[in-house]
């Protein structure tokens, strides 16, 4: 039985063409700055984001944590939405590695407005922790792949500039937002001092993320912390080649993932046991509830796996399914039939 894996877009495997590009990559020692493929990837991502420089790192978590480290001092505070990746999925790294605390504010499907951000900024007071950074996530994983409206980002940016607080964008799935809105990546990135971008999610590379900025000194600090965190790589061009291939061949096709996610959401809507709002599916992530079912969440995940479909339970009676380049439209229809059969 072939499993239809909807747990995440991180489960994608390199295509044959991507593997060929990796095998043929021109490489050098990146710690010395001598890997030509890494340098090409860094330049390409910086240009796409409208930034002066970018740094290649092993993972999205490392990119985010490097941003926090270079923007903050121990004892300071970072504002983030309560379901953000840096809050839920990075093992408390902000506290462990940078010595900062997170000020979590609840959003609507992961999104917060300028008024909430402004209210969360600490006053200038000798008794109060200092707000050192504002982090947004676009698209928002925990919110169900939601896209931050550019107008909302602009209003938050105005607050940040007025209060002299830098901003970081967790843009792990930024190209999903770009594909859905047709806005250039730089239109989003221009409002942030640093931007992270992940290659191993919807873009389908096996590993790698980048941190980009207009501040060259900041990027150089991030490079030093990358080594401290164990993220310095040698002949990393093999991985960078996969990223370059993904940027050239896998961005436009993200629309297929979005279409498949909407297709699955519409099919799930017709299953009485499922509560879902298809209109909230904006990109490639579907979040739905199965309230009051006879099977507990873990048992339901196991029952679906037994029938050939993999998904994740994400808390309470909520579940998540994610479309990606290894799941065809035909597989989406097959998965919908399995959902209907298991939940009948």
What would you say this structure looks like, in words?
The protein has 344 residues and is an alpha/beta fold. Helices cover 42% and strands 16% of the residues. A seven-stranded mixed β-sheet has the order 2-8-7-6-5-3-4, with helices on both faces. Strands 9-12-11 form a three-stranded antiparallel β-sheet, with helices on one face. Helix 1 packs across helix 11 and helix 6 packs parallel to helix 7. It is globular and about 55 Å long. The relative contact order is 0.17.
Order of helices and strands: EHHEHEHHEHEHEHHEEHHHEHEEEH
Low-confidence stretches are: none
Strand fraction: 15-25%
How confident overall, as mean pLDDT? 97
Globally, the shape reads: globular
Straight-line N-to-C gap: 22 Å
**Spatial extent as radius of gyration:** 20 Å
Q: Strand order across the biggest sheet? A: 2-8-7-6-5-3-4
Structural class from helices and strands?
alpha/beta
Instruction: Give me the number of helical elements.
Output: 14
Give the % helix: 40-55%
- Major beta sheet, specifics? 7 strands, mixed
Number of DSSP E strands: 12
Quick structural summary:
With 344 residues, the protein is α/β, with parallel strands linked by helices.
Q: What is the strand and helix layout of this fold?
A:
Blueprint: E1 4-5, H1 16-23, H2 36-49, E2 53-57, H3 60-71, E3 77-81, H4 85-88, H5 93-98, E4 101-105, H6 114-120, E5 131-137, H7 150-163, E6 167-171, H8 174-181, H9 185-189, E7 194-198, E8 209-213, H10 216-228, H11 237-249, H12 254-269, E9 285-289, H13 297-306, E10 309-310, E11 312-315, E12 318-322, H14 329-342
Helix pairs in contact: 1-11, 2-11, 3-10, 6-7, 12-14
């Amino acid at each position: 039985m072939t499993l239809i894996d909807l747990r995440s877009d991180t489960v994608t495997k390199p295509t044959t063409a991507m593997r060929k590009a990796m095998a043929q990559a021109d490489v050098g020692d990146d710690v010395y700055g001598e890997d030509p493929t890494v340098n090409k990837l860094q330049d390409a991502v910086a240009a796409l984001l409208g930034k002066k420089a970018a740094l290649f790192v092993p993972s999205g978590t490392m990119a985010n944590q490097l941003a926090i480290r270079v923007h903050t001092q121990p004892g300071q505070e970072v504002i983030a939405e309560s379901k953000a990746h840096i809050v839920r999925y990075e093992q408390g790294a902000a506290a462990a590695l940078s010595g900062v605390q997170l000020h979590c504010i609840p959003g609507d499907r992961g999104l917060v407005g300028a008024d909430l951000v402004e209210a969360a900024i600490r006053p200038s007071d000798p008794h109060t922790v200092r707000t050192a950074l504002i982090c947004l996530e676009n698209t928002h994983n925990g919110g169900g792949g939601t896209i931050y409206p550019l107008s909302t980002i602009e209003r938050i940016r105005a607050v940040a500039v007025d209060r002299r607080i830098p901003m970081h964008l967790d843009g792990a799935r930024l190209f999903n937002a770009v594909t859905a809105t047709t806005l250039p990546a730089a239109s989003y990135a221009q409002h942030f001092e640093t931007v992270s971008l992940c290659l191993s999610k919807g873009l389908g590379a096996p590993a790698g993320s980048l941190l980009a900025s207009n501040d060259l000194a900041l990027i150089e600090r991030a490079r030093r912390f990358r080594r401290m965190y164990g993220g310095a790589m040698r002949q990393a061009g093999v991985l960078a080649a996969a990223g370059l291939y993904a940027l050239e061949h896998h961005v436009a096709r993200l629309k297929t993932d979005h279409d498949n996610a909407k297709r699955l959401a519409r099919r799930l809507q017709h299953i009485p046991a499922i509560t879902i709002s298809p209109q909230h599916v904006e990109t490639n992530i579907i979040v739905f509830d199965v309230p009051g079912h006879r099977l507990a969440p873990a048992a339901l995940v196991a029952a679906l796996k037994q029938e050939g479909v993999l998904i994740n339970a994400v808390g309470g009676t909520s579940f998540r399914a994610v479309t990606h380049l290894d799941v065809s439209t035909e597989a989406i229809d097959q998965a919908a039939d399995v959902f209907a059969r298991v939940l009948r």
